[in-house]
Design goal:
This protein has 663 residues and is of the alpha/beta class. Strands 8, 9, 10, 11, 12, 13, 14, 15 and 18 form a 9-stranded mixed beta sheet that branches. Helix 2 (34-45) links the parallel strand 1 (25-31) and strand 2 (49-59). Pfam families: Erythro_esteras, Pribosyltran.
Length: 663
Amino acid sequence: MFRDRREAGRVLAGLLEAYRDRPDVVVLGLARGGVPVAWEVAAALHAPLDTFIVRKLGVPGHEEFAAGALASGGRVVINDDVVRGLQITPQQLRDVAEREGRELIRREAAYRDGRKPIDVAGKTVILVDDGLATGASMFAAVQALREAEPAHIVIAVPAAPESTCREFAGLVDDMVCASMPTPFLAVGASFWDFRQVSDDEVRTLLATSTTGVATTSVAETAAEIIGRVAVDAPGGVPPGEVLSDLIGDARIVLIGESTHGTQEFYQARAEITKWLIDEKGFCAVAAEADWPDAYRVNRYVRGQGTDTTAEEALRGFERFPSWMWRNVVVRDFVEWLRGNNRRREAQYRRQTGFYGLDLYSLHRSMHEVVSYLDRIDPMAAARARARYACFDHSSADDGQAYGFAAAFGAGPSCERHAIEQLVDIQRNALDYARRDGLLAEDELFYAEQNAQVVRNAERYYRAMFGGRVTSWNLRDQHMAQTLQALLAHLDRHYEVPPARIVVWAHNSHVGDARATEVSADGQLTLGQLVRERYRDDCRLIGFTTYTGTVTAASEWGGAAERKTVRPALPGSVEEMFHETGKSAFMVSSDSDATAALDMVRLGRAIGVIYLPATERQSHYYHVRPADQFDAMLHIEKTEALEPLEMTSQWITGETPETYPTGL
């Protein structure tokens, strides 16, 4: 999302660099909302600015609905389908056009203060608005502008539906859409501040020269600012005193990664976590991992269970993508954590646990609930089996198969059964906890969270077939709910000091969604939910890289491959960091770099699948780093995460591509 129209203009200016300092370029802002955007574009390009006025021809009685548009120069564009469909008479159209024509003339006179319109004949005209919905006003502007015989017409907008951008791309010489939210709700949804632009503001901007303006980027580029204030972080690990200043007394530290398969991200995150445990007293690692699989690791690091090595404890991670947790870095960290806990136990100090936040383990969690009840309450176990038998109608161990069947009526919905079982175990929780002290309370918490996973996973898998945003939000809300429950559970065990947790997850979960374009779609993230609840008691840290290799698959469920990561795209956060010339560093959002990080840029997100052929569409979205994270760690060139089970594709790797031509 954009902070306001002025910032949107600065973002567009960055995408229009090719037009900078060209004597044939003129920028026209559609009044009124497009003028603040256009002023920033014109100032950055050192081009003259004028306004182009378009008035909507509203349907009589429903003026917010456009039947057409009237543009400067008297050009009228009519939507014949609307006119016919609503049976609008020619006289009604004339009345509306005359009224809007008078307003158009008034505005042109008021805005220019007697100045003549800029002659655009033979010029390259950049038409700027604050966004497009149907595009009726912009279409009228283009049609009217053609009569002035410009050499080229360029349209630039901060936000528009992808279909509208494609349509205009075929009508003009260049089409620049800074963002294309899906689904597209409204232009205003892409802005934090979308207040109405006044006539006085338009008049002031048009009277303020845009040619010869010395912008901040000319004096010092964003990369130069970052390079000046960044702190060297060899291997992605900042000095202890820098970390201490960043973390302060925060109880929750979320550490991200821009891929799910980068060795350096995992190594740096592990080293930072060790420091948080030893120096700041953090007592839990909560990972983007399934609850039962992570709890097996938790038992191992705390000297419980039957596993004898870290590699064995990680064998629960069988579901794709297993390399996320079955890799050499996590194995070594788990072994370190077990040894560290032994030392802490000998010193009568609090041990550190390892937990999962995710909800994919629908069937595994059902099994764990029943197993727990078999040991402690056989009658309750029988009730649980009867309830969970509802899920037997779909394919075994396949949550998506259940969700598909339930969503489309091919099988029963098990929502009621999942809720009843959760309520049942919660109702008896106090009795179960009394039976065997602290260990019993831990095992009860484990079972209760498994019942919660079943309840939330059931909703998630049904929602998968109803909308991507809904299912995403359910997943991140579950993570936030689990984190909250874990914090409360650990606080019950040890009253002083309060529990502190470090979270491991992807940047797309750790970052604050409100600082990204996905917020316009209504999407939430774990980072946003944690910030809203814990405010200054949390820190969000993101990782980025410019190029290298990554462990990823080519399709869901595919084999782990060692793939080449293309150099980051122009206009991205990663490219800005690359231009600093530094190999590894940390930059804080509340440092002197705030201005550089406060600009909306592209941000790369590689999950478990990497599709370089569709790099822009598949792996980039617009972000505002200053608000997305409290700090960012950049490692210029990184290597693929080493899985415990290496596939032939991973060992061989892919043939490096000569980017971008392949020649």
